[in-house]
Amino acid sequence: MEKSQTFWDKNAGRYDAFMRKDAAAYGQLYELLRPVVRRKTVLELATGTGLIAKNLVSSAKHIEATDASPEMIAEARRGNQSAKLHFSVQDMFHLPYADKSFEVVIVANALHIVPEPQKALSEIRRVLRDDGVLVAPTFTHADNSLSGKVKAFFMKLAGFPLHSRWTSKEYLAFLRENGWTVQKSTVLKASFPLAYAECAKQKEL
């Protein structure tokens, strides 16, 4: 994780500007998320500069928003005046929270950029209540246009830590194979196809 953390630390100051190109898709994402988090205790992993958390906090009961990058969290804390929103530096593979602490876990646009994303899902399963909801929207690259694939190639050259190239269908299958029932899904149009997924824990046999 050290190499990718360095990438995000270096780019924390320009992250919000970079994401503006997908503002329309993120607007749709917020509309999908607000009813899910309403009056719920929420954990967000890979919050970055806190774009999602800051847009949802008025609906949620409380949000713990975390990221592995100290520089991203420093950016996220700027301007945050909500007592319901707390930012901290955490490793999504080793979270400090007790079992079944949260009603909702959000991990947005992160599972494709971490090694061994199945381990992250296992840790999410631990901290999520049995009746809780995992929301895991993720950019998918394998079913993108030629121009998108070229863009991804140059992002990788620049150090962008892309570990998984899923199609939207492959991504949903990955979630199912790792213990999750996909209850709702859609694909949002963005710079890369954004596969939105709401999931429940599969019952253990």
Tell me what you see in this structure:
The protein is of the alpha/beta class. The protein has one domain (2-201): Rossmann fold (3-Layer(aba) Sandwich). 38% of the residues lie in helices and 24% in strands. The protein has eight helices and eight strands. It has helices spanning 2-11, 15-19, 23-37, 51-56, 70-77, 117-127, 146-157, 168-177; strands spanning 41-45, 62-67, 85-89, 102-107, 128-135, 138-139, 180-188, 194-201. Helix 4 links the parallel strand 1 and strand 2. It is an enzyme of class 2 (transferase). Keywords: Methyltransferase, Transferase. InterPro entries: Methyltransf_11, SAM-dependent_MTases_sf.
SS strand fraction: 15-25%
Largest sheet: 8 strands, mixed
Secondary-structure element order, N to C: HHHEHEHEEHEEHHEE
Q: What is the average per-residue confidence, as pLDDT, rounded to a whole number?
A: 86
In short:
Helices cover 38% and strands 24% of the residues. It has helices spanning 2-11, 15-19, 23-37, 51-56, 70-77, 117-127, 146-157, 168-177, and strands spanning 41-45, 62-67, 85-89, 102-107, 128-135, 138-139, 180-188, 194-201. InterPro entries: Methyltransf_11, SAM-dependent_MTases_sf.
Which SSEs are present, and which pair or pack?
Layout: H1 2-11, H2 15-19, H3 23-37, E1 41-45, H4 51-56, E2 62-67, H5 70-77, E3 85-89, E4 102-107, H6 117-127, E5 128-135, E6 138-139, H7 146-157, H8 168-177, E7 180-188, E8 194-201
Parallel strand pairs: 1-2, 1-4, 2-3, 4-5
Antiparallel strand pairs: 5-8, 6-8, 7-8
Characteristic terms for this protein:
205 residues; alpha/beta; Rossmann fold; 8 strands; globular
